Amino acid sequence: MNRLKTFLTHHTASTFVLMGIACGVFGLASFNLAYLFKANLTLFLDYGTMVIGEGAGQQLLELIGYGYLALSGYLLFKICEHSLVEHFLHRASPPDYRD
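Now predict its structure.
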């Protein structure tokens, strides 16, 4: 974790690019995810365990995987955001009001 923090702190341009990629992963992985979960669970409730053999079980596992992929994209986005904010706050020096 320290290596990631050091990298993100010292390479702000790369952190910004990584933040954009993570945002894209989050957006693509979570697009329409709630609707597909609802449809899959409705299929299970309507037809029972019979649909597992028809591919609904695999689809449910894939949807769970996309959920975790979206979560990891969001977490990486927030880590990059925190790193950039910390970098720019510590980089900015306080104004000198002495005359």
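The radius of gyration is 21 Å.
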